[in-house]
């Protein structure tokens, strides 16, 4: 699949990208790491990547002005074997968010992005959908 060997065993990568000058709380990275680990566990347990045309997924959480329902898709990265996705989050809400509120915002955005990828690539995403419904009611 990929011509390069990735230097980790992750199946989900989360990164943050500022689109505004608003400063976010210091615990942003800590919360992102927690969400990555939890959602990656669901991905692995549910077989989300079985039959996928990529080895792992990277999601850029874009700290912007609105909350997206659907991610932006980039082509599968042939060099690294990942599917790059990006989804925008409302920085105004994140700047004042408690740890729990930020965790929910990150988890909802991550799940929405993965579910959209599951639909597009005909992957098993029912457990991700169940978790999203559990969170948002």
List the helices and strands and how they pair.
Layout: E1 12-18, H1 28-46, E2 56-64, E3 72-73, E4 82-90, H2 91-95, H3 99-120, H4 126-136
List keywords for this structure.
137 residues, alpha/beta, four-stranded mixed β-sheet, 4 strands, 42% helix, 20% strand, globular
Description:
There is one protein chain. This protein is of the alpha/beta class. It has 4 helices and 4 strands; from the N terminus they run βαβββααα. The chain has a 4-stranded mixed sheet with strand order 1-2-4-3. Helix 1 links the parallel strand 1 and strand 2. The termini are far apart.
Summarize the structure.
With 137 residues, the chain is α/β, with parallel strands linked by helices. The protein is 42% helix and 20% strand. Helix 1 packs parallel to helix 3 and helix 3 (99-120) packs antiparallel against helix 4.
């Amino acid at each position: 699949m990929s011509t390069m060997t990735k230097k980790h065993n992750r199946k989900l990568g989360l990164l943050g990208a500022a689109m505004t000058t608003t400063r976010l709380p210091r615990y942003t990275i800590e919360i992102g790491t927690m969400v990555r680990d939890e959602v990656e566990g669901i991905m692995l347990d549910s077989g989300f990547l079985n039959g996928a045309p990529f080895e792992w997924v990277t999601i850029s959480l874009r700290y912007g002005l609105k909350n997206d329902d659907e991610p932006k898709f980039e082509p599968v990265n042939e060099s690294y074997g990942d599917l790059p996705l990006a989804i925008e989050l409302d920085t105004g809400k994140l700047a004042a968010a408690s740890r729990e509120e930020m965790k929910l915002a990150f988890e909802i955005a991550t799940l929405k992005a993965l579910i959209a990828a599951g639909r597009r690539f005909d992957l098993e995403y029912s457990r991700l959908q169940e978790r999203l419904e559990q969170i948002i009611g």
